[in-house]
Design brief:
Helix content is about 25%, strand content about 30%. By secondary structure, the protein is α/β, with parallel strands linked by helices. The strands form 2 sheets. Strands 5-4-3-6-7-8-9 form a 7-stranded mixed β-sheet. A two-stranded antiparallel ribbon has the order 1-2. The structure holds S-adenosyl-L-homocysteine.
Length: about 220
């Protein structure tokens, strides 16, 4: 993959327009909008796709996977209510765009990817060195990261068949998980709050994600 790591005035201008689009679609959290404005999304795509980087759409990144739509990234991030220094577990690193948006908000991010090729690609992605508050793992998100928990927040960026019980176990009491759960052809966004006993679930809009799959893929 060839990346262009140059952020021109043109890119900055396109990003401002993208922020306007995301705001018009209903995102209100100014910190989230500022993070979208500050993170150069074109860095996360092959340089052949520079022109689509600031269109509010998901885009293929190889291995049949996608970089999430900016609106979706903003939506999930807003629901997470990130506080500085929150420990956040992300399932589905993909391009690492969502992970960087979380890190830009001051979170300590632990992100897991099951596709070895995508995991390896991020090791070569020099821009990520600016974010020592993101730790990358190759593994199965259904298992989470028991030795690094408990987490304040969990974000799942693939379509989950159900709320994975291991991830609930790894949340702090009062912690929140934002997860798209299969509901026919689409997924309904849910926000799960862990209580002293059990969980509380809130239901939000429908989205379309690539599937959350079991196990690792070499
Ligand atoms: N957060 C990403 C979105 C990537 S799409 C971004 O900002 O670009 C979802 C990703 O989840 C894919 O890369 C897919 O390989 C990964 N994935 C699917 N099931 C998984 C699992 N069980 N554990 C870890 N990653 C998984």
């Amino acid at each position: 993959m060839r990346r262009s790591l140059e952020d021109s005035y043109r890119h900055k201008g396109l990003r401002k327009k993208l922020v306007d689009t995301v705001r018009e679609k209903g995102i209100k959290d100014e910190n989230v909008l500022e993070a979208i404005n500050n993170v150069p999304r074109h860095f996360f795509l092959d340089s052949a796709f520079l022109d689509v980087a600031y269109v509010d759409k998901a885009f293929p990144i190889g291995e049949g996977q996608t970089i999430s739509q900016p609106y979706t990234v903003a939506y999930q991030t807003e629901l997470l209510q990130i506080q500085k220094n929150d420990k956040v577990l992300e399932i589905g690193t993909g391009s690492a765009y969502q992970a960087v948006v979380l890190a830009a908000l001051g979170a300590k991010v632990f992100t897991i990817e099951r596709q070895k090729k995508l995991f390896d690609e991020n090791k070569l992605f020099v821009y990520l060195k600016q974010y020592p508050n993101i730790k990358f793992f190759y593994g199965d998100g259904f298992q989470g990261l028991p030795t690094y928990g408990p987490f304040d927040k969990v974000i799942v960026t693939a379509a989950a068949p159900e709320i994975p019980p291991r991830l609930i176990e790894q949340m702090k009491v009062g912690g929140k998980m934002v997860i798209p759960v299969n509901n026919g052809a689409a997924q309904q966004m849910r926000r799960v709050t862990k209580l002293e006993q059990g969980i509380e679930v809130e239901y939000f809009d429908n989205f379309s994600f690539v599937p959350m799959l079991q196990g690792k893929n070499a």
